[in-house]
Amino acid sequence: MQPKTNIVHLPVYQPGKPVEDVKRELGLSEVIKLASNENAFGFSDLAKAAVIEELSNTPTYPDGASVELTAKLADKLGVETNQIIFGSGSSEIILMTARAFLAPGDETIMADETFSQYKHNAEIENARIIEVPLKDGKHDLPAMLAKITSKTKIVWICNPNNPTGTIVSHEELTAFMDEVPSHVLVVLDEAYGEYVQDSSYSDGVSMLSKYRNLLVLRTFSKIYGLASLRIGYGVGHADVIRYINQVREPFNTTRAAQAAAKASLSDDAFIERCAADNAKGIKYFSEQFDRLGLSYFESHGNFVMVDVKRPSQEVFDALLRKGIIVRPRWTYYPTYIRVSVGTMEQNEAFIKALERVLQEVTV
Ligand SMILES: *Cc1c(COP(=O)(O)O)cnc(C)c1O
Enzyme group, top EC level (predicted)? Predict the structure, then answer.
């Protein structure tokens, strides 16, 4: 057997370590996972009720086109229904976009430290990957613009960026879009957009009427708290959405996921509460890192990337022994860990453990 040569070297995706594994391996009864940017504040009660009700329809295939959910979201976003596509998480929209737009040898541009799936899917399509270094943890849009050639097909921008949490402003983004040639698709990943409180942030959907080559990605996995159900979406020009629909699997989202997403869209109060609680967590982390003399990127998401000034794997292992899971091993930031905002109790437990670990693991 011979797989495609360009996939042979690819790593299998390494998710945040599951709580159950850590409990078993280390014999711990209490484990706190702050490694996958999940919503520590749960999910909407309306979504829970909707899933339970929808379960009775389990033997029947879902609506492949998610008609009801699409109509509700289109209304909420102020776009046409043919401008929206749903995926099994926005990860699947990334996969489908790469599949629809990237042929072998095409060029695609992304930041050097950003969400791993842009590069991963581009490699599967055998595209040529051009990575542009972050500048102070932020996307360097002028440098990315300078890399565009006639062969460029997709530029990926993660806003806020995972893992650094930084944002590019509306002004920076529009200045960039104004210069991007029309043959280039810009994918703007707003997986954490609902958390952003900064008024300079751009709402990508509001820019769609001006730029037909913009695709905005969002997900129900983060602030909506539906990560296990797997549902996310893309919003863009109807032509872009049609191309992506052409490579979509017929039944790529489940009934339960569609029902939960639809119900969640009626619960703005839950989202507002989560954004407010998250902001408190970010503030708490910032104050504590300042107190401990650790530098970090100013985060607009539900996680913070902090420099622990020691090899991140060692700090990860030491935290793990205390029952706290974070995310280490960043290629360009070897002494940084990424920690997700938890409940205040979890945040405090993390800081307490980190303080002890910093004494144990010498510089
Ligand atoms: C979590 C995340 C996603 C997608 O998550 P799904 O669960 O597949 O919707 C997409 N982009 C970024 C930057 C993320 O952090």
Answer: transferase
